[in-house]
Amino acid sequence: KLTSLALQPTITPELVHSRVHLKCSYSRPSAKPPLQYLVVWSRLSTPGKKEQIQRDTTLQSFSYVEMNGRNLRLGDTVFCTVTAFSRDASEQQSLPEESKGFYAGIKFLPESLQIAEDGKEHVLTILSTVPIACPGQDDSCKITLQLSTEDLGKNSQLPGPPNIALSACQVDLLRAPCSESSCAAAAVTVTAVTDFAQDGNRLSRIRAEPVGRGDLLWRAYTPKDVKVTVRDLPTGNCYSFTDPHIITFDGWRYDNYKIGTFLLCRSTSRAFEVHVRQWDCGGHRSATACNCGVAAR
């Protein structure tokens, strides 16, 4: 056995002749006699189980594998394992060293969201860990993703109304130089829909599907969903009814028998207010007013 050589293999994505490849790079120790390398590529087929897809014997300090959409597809987690051995005595070999798993495909950051019905916007970043090829001269180098939401509720058999809202229904991932596991990125904001119902915490999901791509690599790929948990918040209520009795948000009660247009409520933190119009509905017998119109923004 050769001693441990600290080859430290790592996987990076690259475009080679406008096709997506993965490159396994490793350090090449200066040794005499010179070394050659066995590089074994594998993918995670089921959790905890790897499937070999390619073997290379090379004198170089790198090896390539193409993502062709058949034996290596988007959505795969890929590994490369490198063993060095002496060219003069092939039985002298190092211990195999395995790279970290490289996920090839679309990633969401964060991978799941926990938000509340408080109107806040939460940024969801969508990125591609592999470079985006330009299939032809007329096509721009981008992937268009169609976004959709689905409310899973408490009973997935009975989906309810939308529980979350997105700032966009489509995003374009434009090709950029690969850095820090991102070769293209876009962002959308996610907001919980305030539904004025005490319906408990609910589960939704966001789905992204590539559209309009002719190449096999993207056409057969659907990224993983993003799970979004929406925390239910109690909704404030206020009332104006009959002649009119008014109950405020904090439960204070009073009557307003006057005729005219009044500011019923106004938020101090956002553009929200309600005006109410009251008319005489008591006639000669009593000075009573009733609601006859409302305006809200």
From TrEMBL:
PROSITE patterns per record: VWFD
Molecular-function GO terms, alphabetical: signaling receptor binding
UniProt-listed Pfam families: Ig_VWDE
Every VWFD domain range: 236-297
Assigned GO CC terms: cell surface; extracellular region
Keywords: Disulfide bond, Signal
Source domain of life: Eukaryota
Protein name per its UniProtKB record: VWDE protein
Annotated source species: Cepphus grylle (Black guillemot)
High-level lineage: Eukaryota, Metazoa, Chordata, Craniata, Vertebrata
